[in-house]
Amino acid sequence: MRALLFALLLPISILGCGSKTDADQPVAAKPSGETAAMSVEGNSAGSASGAPDKPVEATPPPAGYTGGSAAQETATDVEQAKNVAKVEAATAKENADDNTLKANAVAHAKLQTDFDESDRRFTTLKEKAATATGATKKKADAAIADITKREATIMAGIAKLRNATVAQWNALKPTHDANTAAFNKAIDALEVTLR
Question: How many CA atoms, within 13 angstroms, populate the side-chain half-sphere of residue 108?
Protein backbone atom coordinates (compact mmCIF):
# COMPACT_ATOMS: atom_id res chain seq x y z
CA MET A 1 0.00 0.00 0.00
CA ARG A 2 2.88 2.34 0.77
CA ALA A 3 4.42 1.57 -2.59
CA LEU A 4 1.15 2.55 -4.28
CA LEU A 5 1.04 5.80 -2.32
CA PHE A 6 4.65 6.54 -3.28
CA ALA A 7 3.96 5.72 -6.95
CA LEU A 8 0.99 8.09 -7.02
CA LEU A 9 2.63 10.99 -5.18
CA LEU A 10 6.10 10.88 -6.77
CA PRO A 11 5.06 12.13 -10.25
CA ILE A 12 3.03 14.93 -8.73
CA SER A 13 5.78 16.10 -6.45
CA ILE A 14 8.24 16.05 -9.35
CA LEU A 15 5.87 18.10 -11.51
CA GLY A 16 5.33 20.66 -8.78
CA CYS A 17 8.98 20.77 -7.74
CA GLY A 18 10.46 24.27 -8.08
CA SER A 19 7.51 25.71 -9.97
CA LYS A 20 7.29 28.68 -7.59
CA THR A 21 10.92 29.68 -7.69
CA ASP A 22 11.36 29.29 -11.46
CA ALA A 23 8.31 31.35 -12.37
CA ASP A 24 8.89 34.11 -9.80
CA GLN A 25 12.45 35.00 -10.85
CA PRO A 26 13.03 37.09 -13.96
CA VAL A 27 15.21 35.76 -16.75
CA ALA A 28 18.28 37.90 -17.41
CA ALA A 29 19.01 38.90 -20.98
CA LYS A 30 22.43 37.99 -22.30
CA PRO A 31 24.10 40.63 -24.43
CA SER A 32 25.31 39.17 -27.68
CA GLY A 33 28.87 37.92 -27.75
CA GLU A 34 29.25 37.77 -23.98
CA THR A 35 29.29 34.79 -21.66
CA ALA A 36 26.75 34.34 -18.93
CA ALA A 37 29.27 35.30 -16.28
CA MET A 38 30.05 38.59 -18.02
CA SER A 39 26.37 39.47 -18.40
CA VAL A 40 25.77 39.07 -14.69
CA GLU A 41 28.99 40.80 -13.64
CA GLY A 42 28.72 43.55 -16.18
CA ASN A 43 30.02 44.54 -19.61
CA SER A 44 33.69 43.59 -19.87
CA ALA A 45 34.34 46.28 -22.47
CA GLY A 46 32.80 48.92 -20.20
CA SER A 47 34.88 47.79 -17.23
CA ALA A 48 38.10 47.98 -19.17
CA SER A 49 37.36 51.47 -20.52
CA GLY A 50 36.32 52.79 -17.13
CA ALA A 51 32.74 53.39 -18.27
CA PRO A 52 30.01 52.34 -15.87
CA ASP A 53 28.58 48.87 -16.31
CA LYS A 54 25.28 48.55 -18.16
CA PRO A 55 22.43 47.29 -16.01
CA VAL A 56 21.19 43.83 -16.92
CA GLU A 57 17.61 43.91 -18.14
CA ALA A 58 15.07 41.11 -17.75
CA THR A 59 13.55 39.61 -20.87
CA PRO A 60 9.85 40.33 -21.11
CA PRO A 61 7.57 37.29 -20.77
CA PRO A 62 6.24 35.77 -23.99
CA ALA A 63 2.99 37.12 -25.40
CA GLY A 64 -0.07 35.71 -23.63
CA TYR A 65 1.89 34.72 -20.51
CA THR A 66 -0.25 35.39 -17.45
CA GLY A 67 2.09 34.35 -14.68
CA GLY A 68 0.66 30.85 -14.31
CA SER A 69 2.71 29.88 -11.26
CA ALA A 70 -0.21 30.30 -8.84
CA ALA A 71 -2.55 28.47 -11.20
CA GLN A 72 0.04 25.75 -11.70
CA GLU A 73 0.52 25.44 -7.93
CA THR A 74 -3.24 25.20 -7.42
CA ALA A 75 -3.59 22.54 -10.12
CA THR A 76 -0.72 20.56 -8.61
CA ASP A 77 -2.25 20.82 -5.13
CA VAL A 78 -5.64 19.72 -6.44
CA GLU A 79 -4.09 16.76 -8.25
CA GLN A 80 -2.14 15.76 -5.15
CA ALA A 81 -5.29 15.99 -3.03
CA LYS A 82 -7.18 13.80 -5.51
CA ASN A 83 -4.43 11.19 -5.48
CA VAL A 84 -4.22 11.20 -1.69
CA ALA A 85 -8.00 10.81 -1.51
CA LYS A 86 -7.84 7.88 -3.95
CA VAL A 87 -5.14 6.19 -1.92
CA GLU A 88 -7.02 6.77 1.34
CA ALA A 89 -10.23 5.39 -0.18
CA ALA A 90 -8.39 2.34 -1.51
CA THR A 91 -6.78 1.80 1.89
CA ALA A 92 -10.12 2.14 3.68
CA LYS A 93 -11.77 -0.31 1.27
CA GLU A 94 -8.89 -2.75 1.64
CA ASN A 95 -9.12 -2.52 5.44
CA ALA A 96 -12.88 -3.01 5.35
CA ASP A 97 -12.49 -6.02 3.04
CA ASP A 98 -9.79 -7.44 5.32
CA ASN A 99 -12.03 -7.01 8.36
CA THR A 100 -14.93 -8.61 6.52
CA LEU A 101 -12.76 -11.52 5.40
CA LYS A 102 -11.57 -12.02 8.99
CA ALA A 103 -15.17 -11.99 10.20
CA ASN A 104 -16.07 -14.43 7.43
CA ALA A 105 -13.23 -16.73 8.51
CA VAL A 106 -14.58 -16.73 12.06
CA ALA A 107 -18.10 -17.36 10.74
CA HIS A 108 -16.77 -20.16 8.52
CA ALA A 109 -15.20 -21.84 11.54
CA LYS A 110 -18.53 -21.57 13.35
CA LEU A 111 -20.36 -23.05 10.36
CA GLN A 112 -17.94 -25.96 10.29
CA THR A 113 -18.33 -26.52 14.05
CA ASP A 114 -22.13 -26.44 13.79
CA PHE A 115 -22.06 -28.84 10.85
CA ASP A 116 -19.75 -31.23 12.71
CA GLU A 117 -22.13 -31.23 15.68
CA SER A 118 -25.13 -31.96 13.45
CA ASP A 119 -23.16 -34.65 11.62
CA ARG A 120 -22.34 -36.37 14.92
CA ARG A 121 -26.05 -36.37 15.79
CA PHE A 122 -26.83 -37.80 12.35
CA THR A 123 -24.21 -40.55 12.74
CA THR A 124 -25.68 -41.54 16.11
CA LEU A 125 -29.17 -41.66 14.59
CA LYS A 126 -27.94 -43.77 11.65
CA GLU A 127 -26.55 -46.31 14.12
CA LYS A 128 -29.85 -46.32 15.97
CA ALA A 129 -31.75 -46.72 12.65
CA ALA A 130 -29.68 -49.78 11.81
CA THR A 131 -31.31 -51.60 14.73
CA ALA A 132 -34.85 -50.46 13.83
CA THR A 133 -37.37 -52.86 12.28
CA GLY A 134 -40.56 -52.79 10.21
CA ALA A 135 -42.22 -49.51 9.23
CA THR A 136 -39.85 -47.51 11.42
CA LYS A 137 -36.88 -48.97 9.50
CA LYS A 138 -38.45 -47.97 6.13
CA LYS A 139 -39.16 -44.41 7.30
CA ALA A 140 -35.68 -44.11 8.82
CA ASP A 141 -33.97 -45.37 5.63
CA ALA A 142 -35.86 -42.84 3.49
CA ALA A 143 -34.98 -40.04 5.94
CA ILE A 144 -31.32 -41.13 6.02
CA ALA A 145 -31.12 -41.03 2.21
CA ASP A 146 -32.62 -37.51 2.21
CA ILE A 147 -30.31 -36.29 5.00
CA THR A 148 -27.25 -37.74 3.23
CA LYS A 149 -28.06 -35.66 0.11
CA ARG A 150 -28.52 -32.55 2.25
CA GLU A 151 -25.24 -33.29 4.03
CA ALA A 152 -23.37 -33.37 0.72
CA THR A 153 -24.95 -30.04 -0.28
CA ILE A 154 -23.90 -28.45 3.00
CA MET A 155 -20.33 -29.76 2.75
CA ALA A 156 -20.08 -28.30 -0.79
CA GLY A 157 -21.48 -24.99 0.48
CA ILE A 158 -18.92 -24.84 3.29
CA ALA A 159 -16.14 -25.55 0.79
CA LYS A 160 -17.35 -22.70 -1.45
CA LEU A 161 -17.55 -20.31 1.49
CA ARG A 162 -14.04 -21.23 2.65
CA ASN A 163 -12.32 -19.37 -0.21
CA ALA A 164 -15.10 -16.94 -1.09
CA THR A 165 -14.54 -13.25 -1.67
CA VAL A 166 -16.72 -10.77 0.19
CA ALA A 167 -19.23 -10.54 -2.67
CA GLN A 168 -19.32 -14.33 -3.13
CA TRP A 169 -19.77 -14.83 0.61
CA ASN A 170 -22.71 -12.43 0.67
CA ALA A 171 -24.31 -14.25 -2.27
CA LEU A 172 -23.71 -17.81 -1.00
CA LYS A 173 -24.37 -17.41 2.72
CA PRO A 174 -28.21 -17.13 2.61
CA THR A 175 -28.49 -20.30 0.51
CA HIS A 176 -26.14 -22.13 2.83
CA ASP A 177 -28.14 -21.01 5.88
CA ALA A 178 -31.36 -22.29 4.31
CA ASN A 179 -29.71 -25.64 3.47
CA THR A 180 -28.36 -25.95 7.01
CA ALA A 181 -31.77 -25.23 8.52
CA ALA A 182 -33.35 -27.90 6.30
CA PHE A 183 -30.57 -30.36 7.21
CA ASN A 184 -31.10 -29.82 10.95
CA LYS A 185 -34.88 -30.07 10.56
CA ALA A 186 -34.49 -33.39 8.72
CA ILE A 187 -32.24 -34.71 11.49
CA ASP A 188 -34.85 -33.65 14.07
CA ALA A 189 -37.55 -35.49 12.07
CA LEU A 190 -35.37 -38.64 11.93
CA GLU A 191 -34.88 -38.43 15.68
CA VAL A 192 -38.66 -38.27 16.19
CA THR A 193 -39.13 -41.23 13.83
CA LEU A 194 -36.67 -43.35 15.79
CA ARG A 195 -38.22 -42.70 19.24
Answer: 21
